[in-house]
Amino acid sequence: MEIHKYKKLDLDIIVLLMFFMIISCLSIYSAEKFLPYEKNFAMNQAVFFIIGFIVTAIVYLFDFEQIKKLSMYLYFLGVMTLFILRISPESIAPTIKGIKAWFSIPGIGTLQPSEFMKVFLILFLAKIIHDHNEKILNRTFKTDFMLIAKMMGVTLVPLFLILKQPDAGTGMVIVCILLGMIFVSGVNWKIITAILSVGLCMLLTLVYIFVNKSQILLLFLDQYQLDRIYSWLDPFGYSQGIGYQLRMSILASGSGMIYGKGYGEAKVAVPEAHSDFIFSVITEEFGFVGACFVLCLYFLLIYKIIVVALKNKGEYENLMAAGIVSMLLFHVFENVGMVIGAVPITGIPLPLISYGGSSVLGNLLALSLVNNISATTNQYMFANND
């Protein structure tokens, strides 16, 4: 007799999520002493996780044929929500730190639509690739370019709305999702190589412009975003202004040394450490060892998603898993990099650890879909299945 899906929950993912929830709540609680608010952020984060588990459990009940059919509607719902956010008055969608990216919901808090748009985009791109590959049996350069054009067209709409907020960090995540899914879409490797070459040339061109004629960048960047780059290159030179947060983050991360100062012993007050800079709290209190432990958890989570995808025979499910891996990889790389000063600050949260209801719910939604895929394979890293 067939075992129902709910009896085949992937214990590996559940255990990893428990670790992330504990680390998140403890780190946020420790960071609260530096915040000029009386709000209990750690308790709120725990509530976000509980709500996320409940809501995403509903998603777990759907099969992927249903999810594939709903993906287009979810995509348009996400785009419409971003458009409504764009035209909403300040009373409904306030501008916070120069960015209009949240709806204000009385009695609940804020909701960031772009966090859900990332997942909806992954679902819809997977459908586009799957349908294209089913229809086109004899692939040519022309059909591959058609597929890429369709994927880019679908991606550019939410990307434009997100960049108009302006939220360059989330925009970069959207681009990374697109590139990751193009990579696994089955298009000719010569096309992928050409795309990567063009991307590298564009990056080198931007570097050249920044070094020699940086004012040109103001055509598509705000002065604040340009100053962010300057402060990244010289955080201590801008330590009394825009570089203050990065300077304090570097000091906090470095002061933890190998084993850290101990839980609750953080001394360096990093602004808004409970959200995007939560990794600085972890490195200060638990040092290099603690930082490696957290990164190992992310490695195990991403490894698990890849294993689940490889063991699953459904193309749509595997494409979706690839999009989720691309999203998580970029989030972790960019967040950890900006905290230690390796890359410019973009305001990207650390998945499942940074404070934020929308981020937690969005990531749990994505991982619920992975758990759904795993239900059809029932393969575990830490258990034997006889």
UniProtKB/TrEMBL annotation:
Keyword NAD: no
UniProt topology in membrane: Multi-pass membrane protein
Keyword field: Cell shape, Membrane, Transmembrane, Transmembrane helix
InterPro entries xref list: Cell_cycle_FtsW-rel_CS, FtsW/RodA
Bilayer-crossing regions: 9-29, 41-61, 73-89, 101-125, 145-162, 168-184, 191-211, 286-307, 319-340, 352-371
Subcellular location: Membrane
Presence of the UniProt keyword Transmembrane helix in the record: yes
PROSITE patterns named in the record: FTSW_RODA_SPOVE, PROKAR_LIPOPROTEIN
Pfam families: FTSW_RODA_SPOVE
Domain of life the protein comes from: Bacteria
Protein name: Rod shape determining protein RodA
Species lineage: Bacteria, Bacillati, Bacillota, Bacilli, Bacillales
